[in-house]
Amino acid sequence: MMAQPPQPIEVIVEKCPCRNLMITDMNHKILLKVKPYNKRFHCQRVLLDPNDNPIAKLRKKEFEYA
User: Fold this and answer.
1) What secondary structure, in 3-state letters, does 7-57 show?
2) C-beta separation of 44 from 38 below 8 A
3) What integer is the mean pLDDT of 15-19?
4) Contact at 8 Å (CB) between 12 and 28?
5) Rounded to whole angstroms, how far apart are CA atoms 14 and 2?
6) Gap between the Cα atoms of 41 and 3, Å rounded
7) What's the burial of 44, exposed, middle or buried (CB within 10 Å: 0-12/13-18/19+)?
8) What is the Cβ-side half-sphere exposure of residue 15, based on CA atoms within 13 angstroms?
9) pLDDT score of 32 more than 90
10) Is residue 46 classed as helix, strand or coil in its secondary structure?
11) Which is it for the CA torsion 50, 59, 43, 60, positive or negative?
């Protein structure tokens, strides 16, 4: 049995107060959330599922000059 190819979906990215992002489908069902996660000197964000369970931490790549 062959796997089905991925199907495109349309999403809405909403900017919420406090620098949060919410990704919803066209019926406004929450798919993902992105919230700030500041630790030490790194500006990070955490990707959450609809139940606020963390999926991944995102960090801006910093360039070092030699």
Assistant:
1) CCCCEEEEEEHHHEEEEEECCCCEEEEEEEEEECCEEEEEEECCCCCEEEE
2) yes
3) 83
4) yes
5) 36
6) 44
7) middle
8) 1
9) yes
10) strand
11) negative
Confidence (pTM) = 0.71
pLDDT in tens, 38-63: 766 667 889 999 999 999 998 877 76
Residue 59 near residue 53, CB atoms below 8 Å: no
The tokens of 8 are what? 């495109």
Residue type, 16: C
Q: In what order do the strands lie in the sheet with 30-39?
A: 11-16, 20-25, 30-39, 42-48, 54-59
Cβ proximity of 54 and 46 under 8 Å: yes
Place of tokens 């931490």: 57
